């Protein structure tokens, strides 16, 4: 029961705090792409892979009091902060979740910007294409973001590091 | 004349209860509709198990696909000669609209969850693989099939084209809301689509709405909101969906444990083993699924036989509202008691959450999470809808989630151990009303 909810709560436990909905979406997608057993269904949207199922599940966790959402007003948008609550911890303690240890990857992802994670998740979305094709696709689907060659190179290195970390 | 420009000698029309007529003039569209892959959509219901709640909801993915095509055709007609619109994209848009749901299978939500499938993956495969649809698209020009697949997959370079088929106010949603309202017979779900089509404006990378049309869009958002709660999240439909998923789980589990079915479930074997070829995927439709469910009623395995009998004869589970935060201990007690009386809680004590359902609410797209609906203001600037509309703003922040606990009340009523029966009922019925699924 509520296994997928518990996996997300454990993620928040590892992350301590996640700032930004876009960042949260991309973090879960990247972990899923690297083989972590998150089951939320993703589709490609304007800002890269997006899961409505994840959005609704987070909303459920907040409504249940398992995750706390803080809304912060910025100049022309709202920013959200997420943390697991004591009720969430108590609920999670009753679960025997079989998840690999991925704390280091969560910390690594959490240290990056939403813009960078949007790039990484988009690159992973086109995993069946060659590197050259992926880079071409990035410019096609995200012309306005103007990702530089350096950022793309950094993203490839980052993906390799994440993969290696999960293999160890 | 090039195939892409070929027109039928006279316009063909499909009578349609929602749009009155679906108009087809392009040879390419006419040929696509005639393919076996598109005709297969007649055998897949748009709303899966909803007809067990709203008996009129027998409409198919075929009806809906034609409807989306018709809406896009009308939008493009309105866009002709407008700035930012390139009419060379006309055929591409119409093909993508027509084919956007081509990969849906029978009861696709449950099938996708249980067998870890993705209908969008099959849509891409049908368009790009060795199919009749692919051959027609490639006759238009080499690479055209890939463009259609990219528009449907939302990775096409022209975002304006993508947003016609897939955005928070797109042809897909405008058709299914109206069509589902019509066939379920509910009075919500209706909005002034003609008005919305008139106030849609193409921009460089998305469709926006002229601010004077805001009230028509508010009506659309309200319809969407009401349809979710009244139709898509209906607890009776969810009960049927729970049973359907459990049948598929049980069949898979039996197969994995080398259970001998009385008749080999040939059409399901690839689904059980997790390697479903396109050919096998296309063979499965609702008729086949119902055929197996009929047969499985006669199986020796009591669980699959009982669940199939329930699904076929609409003997659904009852439910109570459930709060996992406050009632986790009760759930654990119930789980234990069910095991003690010999009822497998894995199949007969099921929590269903709103996030287990496939529909989505309007989201204002905070922090670029998701592209919102934009209003085109008189000064040419764009404003996000909920920042301008009090109605949309008020429903955007509402609690939209729930959890229900489903169980077979009829079995509980017949438990021989009276003490355990009492204990179970006290936990279940002590939580408030037990909702009868009629």
What topology emerges from the helices and strands here?
The complex is a heterodimer of chains A (168) and B (438).
Chain A: H1 3-15, E1 18-19, H2 21-33, E2 43-45, E3 48-50, H3 52-64, E4 67-73, E5 78-84, H4 86-93, H5 103-110, H6 114-125, H7 131-141, H8 149-167
Antiparallel strand pairs in A: 1-5, 2-3, 4-5
Helix pairs in contact in A: 1-4, 2-6, 6-8
Chain B: E1 7-16, E2 20-26, H1 27-33, H2 36-39, H3 61-79, H4 90-99, H5 108-115, H6 119-128, H7 132-140, H8 144-152, H9 159-165, H10 171-184, H11 193-199, E3 200-202, E4 207-210, H12 214-232, H13 235-256, H14 269-273, H15 278-283, H16 286-296, H17 302-313, E5 318-321, H18 328-340, H19 345-348, E6 350-353, E7 374-376, E8 382-384, H20 385-388, H21 390-396, E9 403-407, H22 409-412, H23 418-429
Parallel strand pairs in B: 4-7
Antiparallel strand pairs in B: 1-2, 3-4, 5-9, 6-9, 7-8
Helix pairs in contact in B: 1-4, 3-4, 3-10, 4-8, 5-13, 6-8, 10-12, 13-17, 16-17, 18-23
Domain HD (chain B): 61-177
Pfam families (chain B): HD, HD_assoc_2
Organism (chain B): Ornithinibacillus caprae
Q: Shape of chain A from CA axes? A: globular
The proportion of residues forming helix of chain A, as a percent range, comes to 55-70%
Strand tally of chain A is: 5
The CATH class assignment of one domain in chain B is: Mainly Alpha
The helix/strand class of chain B is alpha+beta
The average pLDDT of chain A is 91
Q: What's the gyration radius of chain A in Å?
A: 16 Å
H/E series of chain A: HEHEEHEEHHHHH
The major beta sheet of chain A can be summarized as:
3 strands, antiparallel
Q: What's the CATH topology name of one domain in chain B?
A: Hypothetical protein af1432
Overall shape of chain B: it is globular
For the largest interface in this structure, which chains are involved and how many residues does each contribute? A-B, 40 and 33 residues
Structural class by sheet pairing and helices of chain A: alpha+beta
